[in-house]
Amino acid sequence: MTPSPPSRPDTATAPAGGPVVASPCPSPSGGLRGWLAVVAVGMGVFAFTTTEMVPIGLLPAMSRDLGVSEGTVGLSVTLYGAIAGLFAPVLTVATRRLDRRLLLLVVLSVFVAGNAFTALSSSYAVLMVSRLLTGFAHGVMWSIAASIAIRLVPPGQAVRATAVVFSGISIASVVGVPFGTLIGQSDWRTAFWAISGIGVVILAAVAFLLPSLEPRAVVRLSELPKLLRHGNLRIATLVTAAMVIGHFAAYTYVAPFLEQDAGIPSGWVSGLLLLYGVAGVVGNFAGGAAAVRALRTTTLTCILLLATAVVLLVVNGSRHPGTIVLLLVWGIAYTALPVCLQTLVFASAPQAPEAATSLYICAFNISIALGALAGGWAVDASGPSSVMFLGAGFSVLAAVLMTRYRVGGSE
Question: What is the pLDDT of residue 220?
């Protein structure tokens, strides 16, 4: 895939001369079948996101069954994300010569097997092996999902296809993780059997719907650092890192903030976070629609909205209506950003979109861990409100970096 280089980052459609992130070659599929294939890829993202996060709601049950502490079981989430991020560039390059349809089928097959092994785990060691196996596949999935999707639709609909793929993240938060937690309450293994079964369905859909997609823009491992010489890609990666650190520094500790500083009753918190997830689905598609018309402006606006919302949550105090509105604004702003940032990455390195995406995914996942770590230090030192200011500070840094994104090309 070789997207046309952007001539004006504030647009994202070919007729307007903006950053075309799809292949200039004719779509190998297109029409209803092409969009169904995009949905199938998005469901793959949904499944991977669900399996990454569902242990959070099952920690007590998994801890009792496997005879280890909840914190130890929690490493199955932390290390999963670390593996996905750190090995995404290496594995994406290692599989660079494989047909993308075949690679996606292999990744989904590993996903199905990994979750089945998790469900069958007889010990903590087996659990971690199965989780890390799935984590390797996760990194590849994130690196290739959007680049596959935009090859299945006409160039002018590339950003919309990216939004459909990333909607899988929001839907996992709203539906996948709560549902997995619910069905896993009596037996946590049931949740992973169900996720593995969903993976089988997605695997079948991909096998039926996706055409053969030859690899393009082959990049060697030694060439990955050279990609960061492209100024816009370097800026997009730094913006991603700052934005994700800021968000997760604050969001990881949003529950104690809501209860202790905003005066929200503990029984309301889960419902508010569900509303946050619903707002995220809206933000994902709204952000994609806005990015088609004004990519750089939309990205900058979402960053500043997030920074404003988290600061005003502190200023708002214990006024519940204001807290609810600001939490929804936060959800809309943040979940619009993955679509915008992924599109920026494509536009910044059109000659090697998958390799560039693997660097983006690496930065994204490492920044999740860094954000949670920084937020933990802030909470321990100064209380829950401090993480909101920390999140806003990193968001402002991301906004400043975003202003340096160069108009007119990928260099």
Answer: 66
